[in-house]
Amino acid sequence: MAIESSLLVAMLSLSQAPPSPATSDAAAIAGLVRDNGAQPLRGALVVAHCDCLPRPREVQTDDSGRFRLEGLPPGEYTVQVLFGAAEVLERVALERAIRRALYVRVDTRADMRRDSGVDPGRGEGPPRAGGVDGWTRAWLR
User: Fold this and answer.
1) Which CATH code for domain 24-140?
2) 94, 72 contact by CB (below 8 A)
């Protein structure tokens, strides 16, 4: 009985261990995808490409047009946003344990492909009207 209790305590201790250094060094990208009328785009596919990943990471935007890609290693990323026939490419440089906000506008009226850069030093795209919303501000903290 004492051996079983010791084993249970040891297993509980291991399950509550602090995150590994690799996990705490992970970076993230979150953002908002809107259409040409500034309305949130639900269901847009957001794909992060990087040589630092074994395969691309992808998520879909929620009802508010928001997305999060977490647990990313540092590297130079191309973030691809797809909605219907439209495609937007954004470049983002991620450093260790950094969170970046990304705002993407997709013109859903016509076939579209836009490739715009993100300043690797600041991780910001072109200025957008209204600035950072409360959700993103809280996430960046």
Assistant:
1) 2.60.40.10
2) yes
> From CA 31, how far away is CA 55, in angstroms rounded?
21
* Domain ranges (residues) in the chain: 24-140
Whole-angstrom distance, CA of residue 53 vs CA of residue 51: 5
CA distance 99 to 93: 10
- Helix, strand, coil percentages, rounded to 5, for the chain: 20, 40, 40
pLDDT string in tens for the chain (141-residue length): 444 433 333 333 333 343 444 456 889 999 999 998 999 999 999 999 999 999 999 999 999 999 999 999 999 999 999 998 899 999 999 999 999 999 999 988 766 566 555 443 343 333 333 344 555 555 554
- State the residue for tokens 């995150």: 19
Comparing C-alpha atoms, which of 7, 64, 57 is closest to residue 28?
57
**Alpha-carbon distance 87 to 129, whole Å?**
22
d(CA 115, CA 88): 6
